[in-house]
Amino acid sequence: MNPSTVVPLGNPQLVASGSEPAANLEAGQWLDDLADGLSEHGWVSLDVQDLLGRELLDALASEVTILDRSNAMKRAGIGRGSDPVRDRSVRRDKIAWLQGVSAPQAALFRFLDELRLGLNQRLFLGLKRFESHYATYHPGDFYRKHVDSFQGRASRVVSLVLYLNDGWHSVDGGELQIFNRENDAEVCAQVLPEAGRMVVFLSEEIPHEVMPAHRTRHSLACWFRQDEIPLPL
């Protein structure tokens, strides 16, 4: 596996974008690294600043900041179906769904579709589509430990989180805490939500948790799905 791929095991480790080289930009190599990490461990973390480009990351960060400041984001819920429960003891972030209509979103969607096709080619996952939203955590916000999909639903199969926060430090909190899929009491790693850091994991298998943020924290989440038509989340 390329050293740009971070899959810390054993004692919990803190993953920051400066802790290893950026993703290998050779044609397809970053997808090889990503597929290897998913296959071997169920999750992988990559620094994709060079892959996506600073201009796109800045544009996405600007877009979610404007949505947040204009109160265009909605409180996120938990559960499946058209009427999710908004339980602030479990989840406190706000979200806004992406439609691919702006130039930054269109560029991001091209990247996500390349990723979808690359995973299908390497892991034969049969991913047919994806959905994505921005997420904002204000100071004190968190999301308790959970998995992104129920076993056997063939809906959300692969999850992705891309972070959009410049100058993030461990004292700022808001880490993504990742648990061992074989023992969900064991923490595998904590990932700092720094700009350009991307985490990809198997939706049904990897428990994860967003630790309380101490400053405003922006990201976008994406789920790659096997179903052809929208089903209850």
From TrEMBL:
Cofactor(s) needed: L-ascorbate
Keyword Iron attributed: yes
Domain Fe2OG dioxygenase: 123-226
Domain of life assignment: Bacteria
Pfam family, one: 2OG-FeII_Oxy_3
PROSITE patterns: FE2OG_OXY (PS51471)
Keywords assigned by UniProt, alphabetized: Dioxygenase, Iron, Metal-binding, Oxidoreductase, Vitamin C
UniProt cross-references to InterPro entries, sorted A to Z: HIF_prolyl_hydroxylases, Oxoglu/Fe-dep_dioxygenase_dom, Pro_4_hyd_alph, Pro_4_hyd_alph_FE2OG_OXY
PANTHER family in the record: EGL NINE HOMOLOG-RELATED, HIF PROLYL HYDROXYLASE, ISOFORM C
The protein's name in its UniProt record: 2OG-Fe(II) oxygenase
